[in-house]
Write a structure and sequence with these properties.
By secondary structure, this protein is mainly alpha-helical. It has ten helices and two strands; from the N terminus they run αααββααααααα. The protein folds into two domains: about 10-75, Arc Repressor Mutant, subunit A (Orthogonal Bundle), CATH 1.10.10.10; about 80-235, Four Helix Bundle (Hemerythrin (Met), subunit A) (Up-down Bundle), CATH 1.20.120. Helix 1 crosses helix 3, helix 5 (about 95-115) packs across helix 7 and helix 9 packs antiparallel against helix 10 (about 210-235).
C-alpha cells in the first residue's frame, strides 16, 4: 500500500502519502494503519520522521492515535459536522427523523452505486456484518454496532470517499439514539425479524448487482425505521 520515499522532508511526504490513500478511498474511516514497524519498512524511513508525519496527520484531524499506538483513520467530515449536529440531534427524536430523511437521500444512492461498484471483498464484508447482526438478534441483543457497520459498509462500497466519510459521521451521531429506538422496537419480536429481512434484502440486491432493487431495499428499510420512530414519538 505504501511506497518508498525519496524526498528530503520525509515527515511531510509521509503525511501527503497517507492523505492520498484517504482521498482515493484505499484508507476508509475506522481503518487502522499498519504498525509503526511495518510503515517504516514500507516507506524506507526511520521512526522519528514517521512519528512526526503521523503527528501532522493527527493535528490535521485525519487520524487518531489511540492507546498502545493504534492509529485509526478519522472521518474527514467529522470536525465539520459532528459537534454542532450532536447538540441538535441528541435526545430529540424529531431531529432524528430529519436526519433519517437525509440518510434516505444518501443511502439510496449509495446502495445503487454499491450494487454496481462493490468489490468481491466488500460484498464479503457486508455478508460477514450481516451474519453478526443476525447473531446479535438471535442472542436477544440490540445489534446497534453491527447495524451501523452494515450501513457504513454500503457507503464504502459505493466508491465515493466523501460520502464514505459523511456516512461515518452520521452513524456516529445516531449510535446512542438507535439504542433507545431499538429497545422500544424490540418489545415486539416481529420488528426484529423484519429488520433482519430488510438487511438481507439490501445485501442480496447488492450481490445481484441490481441498482434499482438495492435502492428500493434501502428505502423500504429506512421508511420502516421512520415509521417506528414516529410511533415512538407520538406515544410520548
Amino acid at each position: 500500500m505504501l511506497t518508498r520515499l525519496q524526498h528530503k522532508r520525509l515527515s511531510d511526504e509521509i503525511a501527503d502519502q497517507i492523505v492520498g490513500l484517504i482521498k482515493n478511498g484505499k484508507l476508509k474511516p475506522g481503518d487502522s494503519l499498519p504498525s509503526e514497524r511495518e510503515m517504516t519498512n514500507s516507506l524506507g524511513v526511520s521512526a522519528p520522521p514517521l512519528r512526526e508525519g503521523l503527528k501532522i496527520l493527527e493535528t490535521m484531524g485525519f487520524i487518531e492515535i489511540q492507546p498502545r499506538r493504534k492509529i485509526v483513520v478519522k472521518s474527514i467530515a467529522g470536525t465539520v459536522l459532528h459537534d454542532p449536529l450532536t447538540k441538535v440531534v441528541e435526545g430529540d427524536l424529531d431531529m432524528v427523523i430529519q436526519l433519517l430523511e437525509v440518510r434516505k437521500i444518501l443511502e439510496s444512492w449509495a446502495a445503487s452505486k454499491a450494487s454496481q461498484l462493490a468489490t468481491d471483498k466488500e460484498i464479503g464484508h457486508l455478508e460477514e456484518v450481516y451474519q453478526e447482526l443476525k447473531k446479535d438478534f438471535e442472542m436477544d441483543q440490540l445489534g446497534v454496532d453491527a447495524d451501523a457497520r452494515f450501513h457504513l459498509a454500503v457507503y464504502q462500497a459505493a466508491q465515493n470517499t466523501i460520502l464514505s466519510h459523511i456516512g461515518s459521521t452520521l452513524f456516529d451521531l445516531l449510535w446512542q439514539t438507535q439504542k433507545v429506538i431499538r429497545k422500544a422496537m424490540f418489545t415486539d419480536d416481529i420488528n426484529k425479524q423484519r429488520l433482519l429481512e430488510q438487511h438481507f434484502s439490501i445485501l442480496q440486491a447488492i450481490k445481484e448487482r441490481n441498482p434499482r432493487k438495492a435502492r428500493a431495499a434501502i428505502l423500504t428499510h429506512l421508511d420502516f425505521a421512520e415509521k417506528k420512530i414516529i410511533e415512538l414519538t407520538s406515544s410520548k
